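thought: fold this chain, then report.
action: predict
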Amino acid sequence: MKIGLFGYGKMGRAIETIALERGHEIAWRITRENRAAVAPEWLQTADMAIEFSRPEAAFGNVMACLEAGVPVVSGTTGWLEQLADAEAWCPNTRARCSGPPISAWASTCFSPSTDSWPNSWTTTPSTDPT
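observation:
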């Protein structure tokens, strides 16, 4: 699976290490230095994105993925007051996207412990919300 990373701090590096150990590829790494260059075509080179950036960037990162049709998981804290806006956008994805429906998942209960990551990363995640 090709994984895109938003944020390349402790969690981003830990995720990269685990993903590579399990045979996945890192399609891209987006940091504050290259965030301005993000385009849907670039995001779409990943099968899914993992978002661990900063609260002020998280909502924009999640929405960029949703709009590009890239499933995204966000573990960034401090932006959940905007989660409802992202959730409101999701039911309309069938009409907005030519591909399958996409999804987003947000949780602020992540730990850098590599023992907690599931072995399910060995398969491509389903984008079917049913």
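thought: worth noting. The first helix runs from residue 10 to 21.
final: tokens above.
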